Amino acid sequence: MTPAPDSDQSPVNRARFDQQSADQQQNSDSGPFRKSIFHDSGFRWWHEVAVFVLLVLVLMVAQELVPGFLNPRSQLLLSRHVWEMALISLGMMLIIITAGIDLSVGSTMGLCAVAFGVSFEMTSSILLSCLFCVLTGFGCGALNGALISRWRLHPLIVTLATYAAYRGIAEGWSQGHSWSGFGASFSQLSRGRLLGIPYPGLTFFALTVIAAIVLWKTPAGKHLSAMGYNEKAARFSGIRVDLNRFLLFCISGTLSGLAAVFYVARFDTAKADAGEGFELDAITAVVAGGTSIFGGRGNVIGTILGLLLIHETRQFVGRYWGIEELKSIFVGGLLISFVLIYQFLRPSGQRV
To answer: pTM (2 decimals)?
Structure first.
């Protein structure tokens, strides 16, 4: 039998105790759980190792079929396409750790791009346009968070609704119009480099370090994991679940607004279809990196590996076959494959 939790246990330990008790109850009802094939080793990073091995295999095949694919200059050029999705995936990871999801990130990005164009048309100020763009993203995320936290609506339903609503608002607001001609200096925000790394990449790595510190070294990170393991236990443990979830969606929306700024700078165009399809890539990258879709587990190392895998696969498929539709087919296949991989690599009794 599982011992009763001590009164001085931390919130995350209480949540895990509750989850462990539920797992043992299911065990008593339906027989022993299938042991993970790696469970007895005690090694926690099998999923990340599997993603890394698959990434290496993809790169080897790509180099063989597309000579010069791994050329540093070629990789640096291709990296321009990943940073907006990387920023969105960072917010998505935090939300999925808490057993939530945000399907509206791509539509939020499109609405933010339109907000940038409208603001520039009215003020001719790049700084004000960037600020309005990011604030629009924050507002979209805040609306999602308020609906989910205040009225306890499911994140899937809310963000599916705002996925359609935000894109519709963007298209109606722009009336099919696009804005361009923001100047060469603004384009340098996306194309400029420091120590050989593009500015969006530096922004992503800085935010990744902050996210890693929060998840691994602060009580807030443990609270997010506790929310994912068992929300009811987290509430009884004194964790401010509703406030945390609201803030996470605000962060996700803000990152979508920041991604829109870099997107507009890269293409020198602001239009309503910016970020279209980014939600699928972001979710796939996060899940491929080992974040449990049911919450409670996730880390930035796995997310970075998942991002690289999705990015390199997309670029390889695009360059070798030249068929745009195949990219989405491969991404969807990867998402299903990694759910199955996690099923075999997970510890005994842990949810997928």
So the answer is: 0.85
Query: Coil, strand, or helix at residue 198?
Result: strand
Answer for the pair 251, 94: CB distance below 8 angstroms, yes or no: yes
Which tokens in the block code for residue 49? 């190792």
- Backbone φ, ψ for residue 279 (5° rounding): -65, -40
Interatomic CA distance for residues 73 and 157, integer angstroms = 43
CATH of domain 83-345: 1.10.3470
Dump pLDDT digits (tens) for 330-345: 888 887 877 777 677 6
Q: How far is CA 253 from the centre of its chain?
A: 11
Provide CB contacts within 8 A for 247, sequence distance 6+. Answer: 145
Q: Encoding tokens for residue 345?
A: 């690599």
Residue 300 tokens, joined = 């930035």
Question: Which residues contact residue 77 at a Cβ distance below 8 angstroms, ignoring those fewer than 6 apart?
Answer: none
Q: Is 249 helix (H, G, I), strand (E, B) or coil?
A: helix
Report d(CA 272, CA 341) in Å as an integer.
Answer: 36
SS percent in the chain: helix, strand, coil, step 5: 75, 0, 25
